[in-house]
Amino acid sequence: MAIPQTLQPTAKAERIAAMDTIRGISLFGILLMNIVGFGLYKAYFDPTNNGGATGWSLKVWWMNMLFFEGTMRGMFSMLFGAGILLFTGRSIQSNQGSVVTDTFFRRLLWMIVFGVIHCYLLLWDGEILYTYGIVGMFAFSFRHLMPKHLMIGAAVILMILTAFSVKDYFKVKDSFTKSTEAKAKQAKGDTISKEETASIEKWDGIIKDEKVTPVQLKEEMDARSKGYWSIVMHKLPVNQYMQTGFLYFINFWDTLAMMLWGMAFFKLGILKGVKSNKFYLNMALIGYGIGITINYFETSNIINSNFNIVSFYENFLTYQFGRIPTTCGHIALIMLFVKSGILQFLQKSLAAVGQMAFTNYIMHSIVCNIIFLGYGFSMYGKLQRYELYYIVASIWIFQLIVSPIWLKYFRFGPLEWGWRSLTYWKRQPFKK
Q: What is the DSSP string of 2-56?
């Protein structure tokens, strides 16, 4: 079926600069968090596993947990939800709404394909494209709901996620308690039952999964220092889990909630930057006041417990209550920045990064894998945590410079152009 002329990729004049700026900042923030997964072994939450847990390494872990954990991907997911409304809203000018729906779902199907390639061949198990493609099909059905209903739906989903976290916490805590009691009994020379022996074995298994030994670290470093196809096969089980079990039980619900929240914020005008400065200032103060306070107590609890496994699970009991307000605070602060008109050169560069988010996101994976894996410089597991951010800053600077220059001569980023051409079944104009 030919696509009508009224349905074309979003023109530059139709883009919302404020949303592009948020997208650019959140993309950079995602790299800020993802770099740990690219360069260190099981150190995303637990810095004692790899990369150092003292000095500057501890400081950057603390800052990320306090200000950025969960918020950057949260903003990115919110923007995707808003993007659903922008894309499908164009059917108002067309009598062929079914064509818009077909095109939208074809767009998501190609995103799923890109996500599979990104995960299995470009070797990033934390990739989000596959998740967005799957979840976007479900979020599409909620696009006509009123903002308050969208926010209620998001809140219910996040409370369900919290309920899962409560279950996991008590399960781990119970295992720790029973194992500790059994080991204390064993240390006194008392005979322990089969159930007590099993509780010790169960807790030791949890420790093996959560706490990395020097032998495990060396094995992982060796595996990732080999050739490309060897690494592909080594990462296959983790990649499969991330796009199946982790997606269905955790990532699907997290992403759907934030997409619904993004739809609500778009309909309320918050993401468009049309609210007053006073509104955004109050939103920032309330969001940060609640969110960062909760994040502070969570992070302090982990440090004070000397990074005990149970403390990480306890952290997730209040995770959503800290993360969501902090995310709202970030959005409000960015809107104040955009509305202020200051540092226009930086705003334009960030917006350009946001317009080329697909290309820049994949570039993160390609560059980081060349740096850390065996077919490149094989630096996996070798840097201190704080040293990773030299790489992050370098990529940020490069993309801030190159993105606006590229868009000066081309209509889209190269991957955006390919995606649009596949979506509309027609080669899109590339050069300006």
A: PPPTT--SPPGGG--HHHHHHHHHHHHHHHHHHHHHHHSSS-SS-TTSSS-SSHH
